[in-house]
């Protein structure tokens, strides 16, 4: 078990060395390192339930003349004939050196031969929709899918708070710990503290599901996302104090053939409370997160033969979803989805002064800064209506333990969660959960 854990940490670290930090318009001045420029290409191998044994190569660079900008990409194939092609870029400045406009792009396409989908209605009990709160653990189907994603995000950084003198903030960092120049953390006031970002994102996602040789289902959307984000945390990769507030509107006009128009709202608030350091503890914090989502356009109707239908609703992967890498991590991705949802998270994060895996710090390609240990508890629920009484009744929950590490300027995580459906659910991802 320990050997597998170490292998996973190394794999995540090498992968993160190819990916950009996804926290936008932030520059890291490393007190302990003269340059943070990189250009790298590395092979990798992993195993997943849906793709089996995966072999791939990933690469990235920040040598674009803008040290806060990045390009990255990956190509992979697997033993069950799944494959993925991915390309993206972050924080590309639009205009001259004083411009407050930035661009993020991401495009991917690929096949997953054995994707587990919690969507559609139960053929035996048509009134039961897969993925609803009352659906069972085995209410899913596994099918061959092809998915294409393309996002283009335009971001504008307001000249208020910590960005009055310019849109790019520079941290002074040593050993992955903030030393000077926090990006926020003072009392909640966008005019005085933190960073406020407006973004507009046209987003396309299409998923073909091969049900049989002659029958194919399609779930797709071309939607527009408007978001306001107020980040008043002190250090984005690993906040010690402050908060974050985010409000988002998604709207699909129904321009693609066979799609209905729909819209949805989403809101999130995160709070970080520092705890005292000590002889054995370098850094510890209590982190809390609240997230909620609702789609007012969603309509439950009845089709021919009395078969239930959902109209003017987002595809299952864009609706109010729980399960996966970010919320209810003890359940698979998109395990629960409905018209409305609510979710709470509490995490205790600690970086000790001692090093359990000291030899990893000597692997130069990892550029390992610290290892953090996390204990987490989550509770949430989806529902067909936004009713606070219903959303707080019979909530799903999970408990977890995580290991997170900062490689260069980016954070990766491995997590182990227990839920009533999965006694041990293991996942890995980049960035803090919130």
- CATH H-level superfamily title: membrane protein fhac: a member of the omp85/tpsb transporter family
CATH architecture: Beta Barrel
Class by alpha and beta content: mainly beta
What shape does the CA trace take? Answer: globular
Major pleated sheet: 16 strands, antiparallel
What is the subunit arrangement here?
A: single chain
**Tally of structural domains:** 1
Unreliable sequence segments: 1-11, 13-22
Order of helices and strands: HEEEEEEEEEEEEEEEEEEEEHEEE
| CATH class category label | Mainly Beta
Which strand order spans the largest sheet, edge to edge or round the barrel?
Answer: 2-3-4-5-6-7-10-11-12-13-14-19-20-21-22-23
Binned strand content: over 45%
Question: N- to C-terminal separation?
Answer: 28 Å
Global mean pLDDT: 88
Alpha carbon gyration radius? 22 Å
**Strands, count:** 23
Topology-level CATH name? Porin
Count of runs of 4 or more consecutive helical residues: 2
Helical content, roughly?
under 10%
Element layout with pairings:
Blueprint (H helix, E strand, L loop, with lengths): L1 H15 L9 E5 L8 E10 L3 E10 L8 E9 L4 E12 L6 E17 L23 E17 L11 E6 L2 E4 L14 E16 L5 E16 L10 E11 L9 E14 L5 E14 L4 E4 L5 E4 L8 E3 L13 E3 L1 E13 L15 E16 L4 H4 L4 E12 L2 E10 L5 E6 L4
Parallel strand pairs: 1-8
Antiparallel strand pairs: 2-3, 3-4, 4-5, 5-6, 6-7, 7-10, 8-9, 10-11, 11-12, 12-13, 13-14, 14-19, 15-16, 17-18, 19-20, 20-21, 21-22, 22-23
